[in-house]
Amino acid sequence: MKVLVPVKRVIDYNVKVRVKADGSGVDLANVKMSMNPFDEIAVEQAIRLKEAGKAEEIVAVSIGVKQAQETLRTALAMGADRAILIVAADDVNTDIEPLAVAKLLKAVADEEQPGLILCGKQAIDNDMNATGQMLAALLGWAQATFTSELEIENGQAKATREVDGGLQVISVKMPAVVSVDLRLNEPRYASLPNIMKAKKKPLDEKTPADYGVDVAPRLSVVSTSEPATRKAGVKVADVAELVSKLKNEAGVL
Amino acid sequence: MTDPDREAALSEIRAAVAQLCARYGEAYWRKLDSEQGYPTEFVAEMTEAGFLGALIPEEYGGTGLGLLEACAILEEISRRGAHAGACHAQLYVMGVILRHGSAAQKAEWLPKIASGEIRLQSFGVTEPTTGTDTTALKTTARREGESWIVNGQKVWISRVQHSDLMVLLARTRPFDAKRKTEGLSAFLVDLREARGRGLEVRPIDAMINHHACELFFDDLAIPAENLIGEEGGGWPVILTGMNAERILIAAECVGDGRYFLDRASAYAKERVVFGRPIGANQGVAFPLARAHADVEAAALMVERAANLYEAGRPCGAEANMAKLLAAEASWKAGDAAMQTFGGFAFSKEYHVERKFRETRLYQIAPISTNLILSFLAEKVLGLPRSF
Q: What's the predicted TM-score (pTM) here?
């Protein structure tokens, strides 16, 4: 079985984000970028499937700016076999919308015919949580989202999903799109020999035109703002005052 | 400047080392520091992930990378609050075998060092009475049949209790004041066999957790085949590794400096006194900004020295200057960080004081600042000899 893993280059989760002065988005100039952490979990899961003998080949694919090849090199260093970069933007501030990404991924899937697509449940930059679902719909495949445990057996993917009420276990027919959640695994770091070997692994470069997909944006960002700073609270003298305030002012008791 | 492909690989190496270090966290290092413990698991994982075999050629099981990659590894370990001193020697002491060992020695030891099966992270040169006056060292080795018999004493030899092999420098011919550097020989000592059979190891209770020991040799027999290079030709064997060592230690200092600035800037942004973050006070901000400039300048010298070293060009002055500048820059950054953290700097929970103690070492070891100044004055500026 071949596993396709889409990975996105996003602002590093350790970076404190700053909103651009004109409110058009987050300032990404000269900011540390990394692989979306949920995609890292997807790559790790694909490698574990390969190590368990349940997958033969792992193809990582990224859609975005040319610099996303660094993200793909990381996936290759972790253990993916080859990579496809679809250069869909020149400006690091351009974000390709989920539907366009899903269409491109569908085109890649049509070409590659993977048995499983493992993706992060969402990217930490704009938290859309849409691409995996859209991709499953476009392909007409089954989907399992928010997966925190995954077993592949006899053409079925048994996924434990983190839902509001607790855990839900579903079994879906393969090929399927599985989007992964935080607790699925702890991704490995790349070993030094693997970092060096990754440089020799194939990385194909494509454009959206190669797949006949239009990536022009359909949405427009009206404004972006930082969360309001928290206002100072009040100090209460004793428990009695606290209870009284909760009862009379907050009205929660 | 480094080419973009290599730069990309360097940043991947840094990211991977940072991820590895994150699995341990600073609490791990604080605990080891309080117990004088050795980071056995950390070093094993660093080895397994191939980072300590970076400089060993591929034919011997390493990755055969350059000094810049090795610098990036040690710098990143230091920057993440870990103590690179616990494992740096495994990365470079093997250079003695690689450059001067026989084909048999290389084939025997290098693959095992690359895999971590054998730890070669001790270097026995310094002696209590002679210190930096290395050629005056008094430990002797005399040939008896198929063995060399060693007698003498060494001090400040690091990680002896966590190493399987040690490179030892001893006198095999009497000291000749006219030919000071001749008559010294380098040996490979198998510590597993030597301990208790002519070698006594005594740990030194020291300011930082660097696992330094005193060694006493009393008729220790070393197999004749463990001589590295020529008999009497030990001086160049020791000398050729020194530039690489200095550049690598300098990279660690750059990592320490960046660690202090990461931590102190973060703290200065969030610590609020008199109704505003303390970093808004220039008395707090400027020492950090100054230290940043110093650390970045030192980093340039480290890169320059590493580039010269890799190109096979003379780099003694640059390697020494890199070590001097980086060790002073990390110390200044540490001092600025201590002042920024104020009283909390003294709380071990904040880790800064541990790193502050650790980085102080590098103005003294592996060579003290005064010796570097003396070298620069005499060899670069052509000033008269002072000793």
A: 0.91
